[in-house]
Design a protein that fits this description.
The structure is a single chain. α7 links the parallel β8 and β9. By secondary structure, the chain is α/β, with parallel strands linked by helices. It has three domains: 7-71, Arc Repressor Mutant, subunit A; 93-164 and 272-290, Periplasmic binding protein-like II (D-Maltodextrin-Binding Protein, domain 2), CATH 3.40.190.10; 169-268, Periplasmic binding protein-like II (D-Maltodextrin-Binding Protein, domain 2, 3-Layer(aba) Sandwich). 39% of the residues lie in helices and 22% in strands. Residues 5-62 form the HTH lysR-type domain. Pfam families: HTH_1, LysR_substrate.
Length: 293
Amino acid sequence: MSYQLELRHFTYFLAVAEELHFRKAAERLFISQPGLSRQIKQMEEIIGAELFIRNKRNVSLTAAGVYLKKELSYIFNHIDFTVKQTSLIDKGSEGEIRIGFLGSAMQTVIPNLLIKVNKEFPKIQFSLEEMSNYDQVNGILSDELDVGFVRLARVPDGVSIKQVQTDTFSLVLPKNHFLNQENFTSVAQVSKEHFVLFSSDYSSIYYDKIMSICEDQGFTPIVSHKSVHAQTIFKLVESGLGVAIVPTSLQYGFDLKVKFLEIPRISQRAELSVIWKEDNRNPALAKVKQLLF
């Protein structure tokens, strides 16, 4: 008997690939475990490749399975988005732009962009999600995002990057700290204090720049806490658990008992860039890109 691949085969495969457990995948799909196993075996026979390594305790993907999972995830993401875009266009919209961003982009860059787009293309809609650099790049590659706002020096082939903002750095201190605008001259003045920094997972290049600011002043900071969220960092500083160094623009939009002192006479700058996939087919993206640069 000959068989052909159907959409259900791909749905079943992705469930097992994500769960790496046939019983859990079967429960998720509301089918029997033996039935799911037969469908996966049938799929492997049609393709002519083993997709899973099975033993009594574990299920893992073969190299072919890893490749298929990556490609199918991209295809399913694109199908879901295409269906959503079709529905939006039918209702009179010009589509949706999916934006990933680091927190600092929400201070000025993204609000300014949304104002411009709303004025020029009021029928374009947006969805926004704060994400790490790593997750944004993966989202762009897998067609889950159209645009990302990142702090990166390099991006993978097929992804474009363009700088949109250059910012200075500021020292963040509790309100009652002895340093102020009049007596602050260098971060070396807080060399003995504990630091609360953005995690290197947030942006490795940004983390390295902060370390270099301190090292240029002759010390290595004592890092007591790390976070990927500015609000958390500022709350820790407010509580007296350390000082921080952040892009100056992050001082806006928070109501906490901290103060910001721009660091003078340093060469380091916080550079924010926008990224997008070069072969992105979302028609709304071309319109939005006109207003980015």
